[in-house]
Amino acid sequence: MILSQKITSYPGHEITPEDVKAGKYLDLVYKFEPKYSWAAGVAISRFLAELKEGRIIARKCMNCERILVPPRMYCEQCFRPTDEWVEIKDTGTINTYSISHVGTDARRLKTPILVAVVDLDGATPGMGILHNLGEVEPSKIKVGMKVKAVWKSSSERQGAITDIRYFRPIGEE
Amino acid sequence: MKNRVAIVGAGMTLFRRRMLESPKELSFEATRMALDSAGLELKDIQSVVSGSAPDAFDGMHMKGEYLLDGMGGIGKPNQRVYVGGGTGVFTPIGGFWNVASGMYDTCLCVAEEKMSPLHPHPQYAFWSIFDQILERPLGTTLLWIFSLEMRRYMHKYGIKEEEIASVAVKNKGNAVDHPCAQLGAKITVDDVMNSEPICWPVKRLDVSPPSDGAAAVVLATEKVAKKLTDQPVWLDGVGWTLDSTHWTNRDLAYPEYVEKAAWMAYKMAGIKKPRKEIDIAEVYDPFDYKELHHMEGLQLAGKGEAAKMAVDGVTQRDGDLPVCPSGGLLGVGNPIAAAGMMKICEVFWQLRGEAGKRQVKKDARTGLAQAWGDLMQVGTVAVMRS
Questions:
Q1: Is A92's Cβ below 8 Å from some Cβ in B?
Q2: What domains are defined for chain B?
Q3: Contact across the interface for A3 and B179, Cβ inside 8 Å
Q4: Quick one: DSSP state of residue B179?
Q5: Rg of chain A over CA atoms, in angstroms?
Q6: What single DSSP character describes residue B74?
Q7: Do the beta carbons of residue B290 and residue B272 sit within 8 Å?
Q8: Contact in structure between A38 and A52 (CB atoms under 8 Å)
């Protein structure tokens, strides 16, 4: 086996899991625990405030006539400020979905997370958001399925994307 | 362009899950091999372009500066380029500007990645590429963008998981002949189908592994190249574009940004019919479906038609369009930036007819290497000729 006919040795030394267990190499372990406080921005602050009220809003660009969600204060295609806020529906269509058996740090989950891109009704077609699915058997999920947001109660909502617990199928396709 | 750009040397380290060498040491090994294969010393190098992906893997901020001495960059004009997974092919694109522009006669391009320091898993670093307000609170993992894209791609064109799995079988099989490969193996479609689901439809064997490694090439002007070798490989076309991070607003079934990058490279190289004119392609394959998705974006297959080419054997080493003869990321391994550079190295060796057991059957004169990354938004493409 060769890389190139002109190369005969291949540099590098592997550390195997057995080496690690046997303590055969030296390392230094460090835990970095920074804390950030993110301002949500002009568009998303308003979007989150509306979620707290149980509504989903978008921004409209009068030039390309797209209704943008997540909302932005500028249209990245026309490169001009967007023009107005538009309330859209909390129903939509599953564009695509996945059944995730791993969490954020890639560790195995006991219960899989159902995740989807949901194209929201009232926004320009193809304007999806990422969210979770619920109240559905994983094997029953289909691309094209109609879904509706399941909201936390008004007292539980805090102006976050998780004010919507998940989207659930609403029967017809 | 002021100068035609040649690749005159290439080198790489072993790709493994965890390596003893530090990031600087890995960089040095690959760089030294590339210089040796070009018959050059560091004093002959006028500029250096370095590529490395997220600093979060190493926990080493400003990694470009940290890596500098291992990459031969001390006291020379140096730039670090970074477009996530697209970095490996973007690194020689950066080098191309240095040489094609007439600024420098020689440029060293080095890509390194050490993913193993991050615990419990390197995937954890990718959590922070998602939108911090709207997406991270949902429990995101990088695998979601792949599994969601794969599902959409399957839906739009009616592609089966088994057809996609044939790509993993081919690439891991090809990697058996690569001396630096981490996961070369003879497996079957059933093995892929029966491997544990991670984010369905993505299963364990659909995915490339996390890896440590480095790879490098040396670029030179035509004048310098002709003094060094009678087998220069010409870097005749480069292209790159990015799409928005609003990835949920995008057509996930087709990578338009890859198409744009490809046409930029093809136009520069004078290629009008890519499927006819490209002899071999190292297409970016961090996941098996991505090879198919990218072949379509690269105009090497019609929309929804790449799976049939894979199943029919067209993309095998002895096929009409060999794809990932190296073994790709699925087989050789995926130290992010170094993996894209490995593809450039492989096309270099293939076009010189030096690839030994990996050598494709057809007489390959024109090759392509492509990488992809960030939040499913960047395409980087290089067209090379012997």
A1: no
A2: 5-119+211-235 (3.40.47.10), 132-209+239-385 (3.40.47.10)
A3: yes
A4: T
A5: 23
A6: T
A7: no
A8: no
Contacts of A20 (CB under 8 A, 6+ apart): B18
pLDDT band at B126 (very low <50, low <70, confident <90, very high): confident
B144 and A130 within 8 Å at the Cβ level: the answer is yes
pLDDT single digits (tens) B171-226: 999 999 999 999 999 999 999 999 999 999 999 999 999 999 999 999 999 999 99
Q: Rounded to an integer, what distance in angstroms lies between the CA atom of residue B372 and that of residue B88?
A: 9
Question: A12 with B21: CB under 8 angstroms?
Answer: yes
Are B148 and A97 within 8 A, CB to CB?
Answer: yes
**How far apart (Å, rounded) are the C-alpha atoms in residues B38 and A76?**
45
Note down pLDDT in tens along chain A; length 173 residues.
788 888 888 999 999 989 988 989 888 999 988 899 999 999 999 999 999 999 999 999 999 999 999 999 999 999 999 999 999 999 999 999 999 999 888 889 999 999 999 999 999 999 999 999 999 999 999 999 999 999 999 999 999 999 999 999 997 54
pLDDT reported for residue B254 = 97
Q: Which of B21, B152, B200 sits opposite A12 (nearest CB)?
A: B21
B308 vs A: CB within 8 A: no
Which of B14, B354, B357 comes nearest A1 by C-beta?
B357
User: Per-domain residue ranges for chain A?
Assistant: 42-169
Q: CA–CA distance from B78 to each of A136, B67, B159, B203 (Å)?
A: 54, 11, 45, 40
How far B300 CA sits from the closest chain A CA (Å)? 25
pLDDT digits over B28-57, tens only?
999 999 999 999 999 999 999 999 988 888
**What pTM value is reported for the model?**
0.96
Residues 17 to 46 of A: which have CB under 8 A from any B CB? 20, 25, 30, 32, 36, 38, 40-41, 44
ipTM > 0.90 for the complex = yes
Cβ B289 vs Cβ B145: under 8 Å: no
φ, ψ of residue B255 to 5 degrees: the values are -85, 85
What was the pLDDT predicted at A173?
A: 45
Size (chain B), residues: 386
Decide: B257 and B370 in contact? Cβ < 8 Å. Answer: no
What are the residues whose beta carbons fall under 8 Å from the beta carbon of A104, sequence distance 6 or more? B124, B127, B139, B140, B141
CB-closest option in A5, A95, A126 to B356: A5
Within an 8 Å CB–CB cutoff, is residue B251 touching chain A? yes
Residue B36, classified by CB atoms within 10 Å of its CB into exposed (0-12), middle (13-18) or buried (19+), is middle
Q: At what angle do helices B288-297 and B161-175 cross, to 10 degrees?
A: 100
Contact B305, B321 (CB under 8 A): no
